């Protein structure tokens, strides 16, 4: 009987035990959840919570939590440790098939760097079809995301949904979705130009120094008339109106040329770029690119606008201004034959004459 | 071998066209045989051409007179060989420009002398004197004609490049032989304008006496525009090398052939030094004799201006003395000096385009000052730079190549408004003016820009020079604080920038894509070296796909090269690096040859255009028609004549602008060994 009752009691005791254990699991989980998100728990932390009575029990509890996907086992400096997952995440993970879980594990390990599908296949020894199927289902469950790599444009990288792709695969602030964000670059570079202009240039109006020279000229003319010899007289230049009748931009007298750091500060304070962190090196990249484009000039570590005089027409060189410089058949042109200087249509057009008809 | 002495097929074609144009068909035929066959003896020349030996000799005389060929008669008198001096041959295209440069710098009379010297080739002083002031006996006049046979050729052909008056003294000097009195038809428009302006000063252009002629020649010799003729000038680069090598071995190595690196190096240095000595000797100006001014000379009134122009190292004769040059001295124009002047012009134009008008004028003043002491753009026979750069840095710069702001302030054209292009606030500060700048940015009361103290002008000029110096091309480099601020001009570095600029301009002239991204790509490659596609994208901040099309375009045009380096043993596209790179020297060569070709095509086209109006031109050049075109030609003919002149002007102007490209690419620095 006793054995019977014992037998009856045993399942009840086990049930009680399991309830107790479940309670303890919840308590342990709640205790851990009080810590800030993402905290790593080492064994001593968990035993300090005094939920389990001894080490063995603690191990059982933690194993149970891990099995329920509520905890993620990790190692830190060779020491085992654990990280907490939310109950919703754990719920999702529990519903995964074993293959999906395996993939998830590998993707998780790659963290922000992401992992390439081919690498996943190699590590899991699964067929490409199976991998693709599982990845699709993981994506549908909002657990992972795919990103195009900047380094290897043909590669699709997977990483956990909540992670922000690292710079290695997503590029710096100037890139989005694997390619350079031309609109953003364009806007920011234009703002940079405006900032530098505001800081280092002044606009000079045409009549900024409206000196009346007529009197001086009249005086000189009189001198010239009085002079006996032309050689001795001061040269009289006819008065010509100022070359500039438009306001023009000139470098201010003692300009404080901005550096990448000072420009970055201003860009950030303008608040035009959201959700992105621009570092000084990113700013330098942009500024150096603008130097290549000929919009800025770099002097030491500072930048200034490449001011071009507006009144001079930008002449090309002698070679390209002639028809030959831009001729599409330049390499085919010979001393005689169908394409030659005599039969050239471009010369004819340029000179307004007729060419020889072949 | 000299960088410009390399001969390429297209350069040969260009030079043949030039020679034919200026010295006629005979000279051109001989020239072309030499161009095709290289260095030849007279008998080999005979065999290689259909001309008889008399014709060949005539042709050679013209070419030698103009220094278009080297010959070795002085070292192997029995079987002298002849070879083309490509640099001088190409230099024919610069004749018009030479005259313009001389006129700008030294005035009309100097230009007149230069023009005759160029037309005649090398000339004895005595011959030149006789050409200007012919003795009135029949015999000597005909004798002179014989001596200057080359001139006859030039005249007969109607040269296109020697523009301006070829008449010895223009119309004013009635005593000149009639054949020298023709005024050339062909002249680019700018010349024409100049002519119009000076029409009323024809009298001024006339050289009135032998003494004045001598003094002009002497002055041009001091400035390095005219050099004396030496037999070593006729030696080809190979012969010169052999001679100098022999001398170097004698002097450095006691006549033994060098063995081992040390001896070889010593001899190599000896050769270079000897070459420099020989060349520098050409520039030495023989001390002229002087005589007392006589009453006959009293009217020549050399202006004070000319004496001032002569510069500090010039020995200006006292007022009562007259320079008399040795009548047997043989002189010629110095093409190297022309290149220096051309460099000045190109730099000034570029600064005008890139920095502004006033800085360009300031720069011009600086460059002109240095020009007098600069015999050539770069020394092809310079010793190789020492291995340690520290020693170079300590080397002091020759004071003759330094310019101070104060000097510029004194020499610059006083009618330039130095205030232009500066910040009004700065102007007030720099002029120590009592004026101030109001809210609108105007200076009240205004400052008279032409009535400033020398100090204020120096400060303003220093500001302009700073602007030039801060340009990425580093047009000037700060040297010291002497004379307010002292500057030097680092020509070798600027020459590199100029080459790069010329290549970039050419690329930008392509299609829209090249204009926008091609230049950027070239600059990126120049800065970073070889790059693959991804790095390229990072530097240019552009999607790789867009870059690819730019790279393709530039590769086809020959400015950019691509390279494939396999990562694994198999050569597979997937497992290879694909690099893009840019070699400045290669691009420079490519552009240079293309420019030669462009010049050839332009001249060929001009020839064709001339053929189409040949009949009309023959009529217009008849002695009774010339000068009276309106009277003898119909309206249509006049129209056609005007159009032809327009065409000619346009093509020639373009050729001379292409010559500027050639100068930038070829003449301002030697080959770039490493990029």
Automatic annotation (TrEMBL), chain A:
PANTHER family: RNA POLYMERASE III DNA DIRECTED , 39KD SUBUNIT-RELATED
Protein name stated in the entry: DNA-directed RNA polymerase III subunit RPC6
Biological process (GO), any one: transcription by RNA polymerase III
Record has Membrane as a keyword: no
Parts forming coiled coils: none
Function field: DNA-dependent RNA polymerase catalyzes the transcription of DNA into RNA using the four ribonucleoside triphosphates as substrates. Specific peripheric component of RNA polymerase III which synthesizes small RNAs, such as 5S rRNA and tRNAs.
Main location: nucleus
Highest taxon, organism lineage: Eukaryota
GO cellular component terms attached to this protein's record: cytoplasm; nucleoplasm; RNA polymerase III complex
Source organism: Westerdykella ornata
Keywords from the named record: DNA-directed RNA polymerase, Nucleus, Transcription
Subcellular location: Nucleus
InterPro entries with a match to the protein in the record: RNA_pol_Rpc34, RNA_pol_Rpc34-like, WH-like_DNA-bd_sf, WH_DNA-bd_sf
Keyword Nucleus: yes
Family (UniProt): Belongs to the eukaryotic RPC34/RPC39 RNA polymerase subunit family.
From TrEMBL, chain B:
Protease listed as a keyword: no
One GO biological process term: DNA-templated transcription
Keyword annotations from UniProtKB, A to Z: DNA-directed RNA polymerase, Nucleus, Transcription
This protein's GO CC annotations: RNA polymerase III complex
Residue ranges occupied by any RNA polymerase III subunit RPC82-related helix-turn-helix domain in the UniProt entry: 13-71
UniProt feature, compositional bias: Acidic residues: 190-200
UniProt name for this protein: DNA-directed RNA polymerase III subunit RPC3
Source species: Westerdykella ornata
Lineage per the UniProt record: Eukaryota, Fungi, Dikarya, Ascomycota, Pezizomycotina
